[in-house]
Write the structure tokens for this entry.
Amino acid sequence: MEERHFRADIDLAETFLSGQTFLWDETEGGFASYLRGGVHVRQTEDGFAVAPCGEADVPFWRNYFDLDSDYPSLLAPVMDEPLALAVRACPGLRLLRQPFFETLCAFISSAHNSIPRISSIMHGLRVLSPAGGFPTPSEVAAAGVEGLQRAGMGFRAERLYKSACMVLEGMDEASFTGLPYEEALQRMLRFPGVGEKVADCVLLFALGYREAFPVDVWMLRAMERLYGITGTPAQVKRASRERFGKEAGLAQLYLFHAVRLGRITQGLTEGACLS
């Protein structure tokens, strides 16, 4: 089994456990996923190693782990005290570029669910794939609502079934190519059960719309605590996107992970973080 090493400033645990992906399981010596037919990734001193990984797989993994992006340079124009603390608190965190359909399914499954429960649902869906990987849109549609319920989707089964059918009818990843963010957002909101937060998650974590800024209860608390930004999720999102610009999604990832884990509740200068 061929293993390939990648040099990168990355912490696999920080990245896989940051709430942006539900496809990786921690194992002895690394993390495993059923991506690309089954793969194992382990941390190394100067990056990580993937097995199996042939030469043809390299572009996928470089894109998946966003290895060609220089985060310090991208965030420099909007760096401030709270964001700097979040970045220091989460060393090696990377913004993943994940497969579209898997990500759509995961965040449709996220309604009223914990991260372990979402991961469990995603694993449960594998019974729909004869190959043992994540099911294709065709396999999800073929299962029907009842089959998806048996696989663990519960009340979300109908939403996922209809979404798979929409992907088959042309609402696939390619249909978002070249769309401005606002148009892509409106297109994503056409999927059943997808509100603005879930839409922004898929746009950010699968389709590369780095200006997307998902807002949930953690981000409402974070933006009020760190920046004095309050209001509805839509209002907080708008103000946050104005503050962080085209790299709002990258800033969101650091702030979300650091605040959720309680890593930047201390160390802030009194009043310095307020806008």
